[in-house]
Amino acid sequence: MIIASNAYTEGEWTDVKDHIFAGYYYQVASQPLSGAAQAGILRGGQGSWDTRTVLSNIRRDAHGRLLLGSLGNAGNYPLWFIRQWADRVQQHYFPQLGRIEWQSTWTGRIGFTPDHLLRLFEPAPGLLAATGFNGRGVTTGTLVGKCFADYLLTDDAAALPVRFSNNNKKVSGRSLRTLAYDAGFTLYHAGQCLRVVL
After folding, report:
1. What are the distances in angstroms from CA 54 to CA 51, 69, 72, 150, 191?
2. DSSP string for residues in 52-87
3. Residues 103, 171: one domain?
4. Is residue 191 part of a domain?
5. Where are the transmembrane segments (predicted)?
6. Domain of 171?
7. Which of 77, 131, 153, 185 gives the lowest tally of CB atoms within 10 Å of its CB?
8. H or E segment at 22?
9. What are the tens digits of pLDDT across the range 154-165?
10. Is residue 194 part of a domain?
């Protein structure tokens, strides 16, 4: 069995969460764009990430909505702040769209580690866990899933991308770290809204 719930882990194996602290990532979705507007952006249907201090992503969904996302807990921000941030990012990358309407916002939880490296565990024979993907869960999680399958079939630890973590490496001050990171993300986004940074 594999525990792959990362920052959402609950129940019997919650001690896996002691090795991470929560971070948040939010997405903002526009109203569906017109056919002409869709054709003018992300023509290949690809998503895009920037490399700023507080990264952002841009993509389109199957309904033709523009989706923008970044680190931070949108549940802690007033709606006007999120919309102003989204307007600023959208106008930087796609000014040809003019002003667009933002339809919805949601936030997900991610697991951070102090050294930005994931943690693998074997809490009991035949039970594996991975946590602390640091916002890279889609690609890294896919790789870890394959490696876990190889390990379960061969019992060869060389199949794993990193060694199993020492259970003594628990993260101290988890709640404080979460608050500090989110405060930093909020300040950065405020700077974007005020056009101090992009």
Report:
1. 8, 11, 9, 35, 11
2. SSS-EEEEE-TTS-EEEEEES-GGGS-HHHHHHHHH
3. no
4. no
5. none
6. 2-22+113-176
7. 153
8. strand 21-30
9. 999 999 999 998
10. no
d(CA 15, CA 50): 34
Separation CA 67–CA 197 (nearest Å): 21
Task: Indicate the number of domains in the chain.
Answer: 2
- The 8 Å CB, 24+ separation contacts for 155-164 are 160/120, 161/120, 162/117, 162/118, 162/120, 163/120, 164/120, 164/121, 164/122
Q: Is residue 11 part of a domain?
A: yes
The answer to whether the pTM exceeds 0.70 is yes
Instruction: Tell me: pLDDT of 198 over 80.
Output: no
Q: Which helix (H) or strand (E) holds 175?
A: helix 174-193
Banded model confidence at residue 124, pLDDT cuts 50, 70, 90: confident
Q: How large a percentage of the chain has pLDDT more than 90?
A: 74
Is residue 47 domain-resident?
yes
